[in-house]
Amino acid sequence: MSDSQNPWATDNTSNDTDSAASDPWGSTESNTDSTASDASASNPWGAEPDNQSTANMLSANTHDTEASFSLMDPFQEAWIPLESWVETFVTWLVANFRPMFSAIKAPIDLTLGSIESVLQGIPALAIITIFGLLGWQLANKRLGGAIIASLFVIGGIGAWSQAMTTLSLVITSVLYCLIIGIPTGIWMGRNDTANKVIRPILDAMQTTPAFVYLVPIVMLLGIGNVPGVVVTIIFSVPPVIRLTNLGIRQVPEDLIEAAHAFGASPTQMLFKVQLPLAMRTIMAGVNQTLMLCLSMVVIASMISVGGLGLMVLRGIGRLDIGLATVGGVAIVILAIMLDRLTQALGEDRRARGVRHWYQQGPIGLLLKFKRK
Questions:
Q1: What is the total count of domains within the chain?
Q2: Which parts of this chain are annotated as the region Disordered (predicted)?
């Protein structure tokens, strides 16, 4: 092909001249060995190349080189292929049980959607009034006023919508934790074999870091609010199981024998003797489960769970201290508010001279006016 037909063609002489001009180190080596010239150009300091020093440590595969066994370092390589076992198991689980886990999402999605639509649909002032009256009913006027002030602060800092999303996630998670945890705890409290089998499982669940639960849940259920509720339930259910079991086992034996002597059936024994006496311990478990749900909902923002946790995560990712602080303050206020409400549920009203819950607070006040 002629030069007029190939405008990009250059002669060899100009190439040699250009390559010599582009060599700032003044090398006079022959161009016959292109590999050597490329190596010398990429190493202008004249150091001998070292394969080990130039290896990319991030991409190096430690399993490629087999090291000889040494008693001084016997754990240089893994003996037990736990990593491959777990990967194989999770792959098998996803391939065979993903439809089942997708079916589990349906009731959780329905519950979460209903609660969130209610909290987001009701006007903010109405929700503040409802929670204030609830605090007054369960405890006293001081708690009701504190809850009203706390909710006004959450709305005032611009975190109301995210707080309602987080609250709906927490309420849904706690609801399913109670549905699963209280019957399981009662079963463990009345069956020693079940207690011996389930207790080690609860130990493992409570010692497992929260982030470990995220990976299998994402593979099985995907990302979003519903998978976040599922992982929150798994992480938060052990305390209510443990303390329900403890409360049932702490019922005095003489009271159980007296109930048997009066001919109480197992159902009557449970609902009229064991559960009332174990209620304070069970409510302590509910309180711990609630706090764990709130903490896990924040951690689950890493798998696109909305609410205050996502606000904090975005603030950290953008180095926006203000946004992260707003989310953090709202989380703290919400946690204190829910903690005080659940503690009030577990208190003994008879110490305040009240036998039934409806004899105090705004409902008790209305009943007094009605009697007059």
A1: 1
A2: 1-56
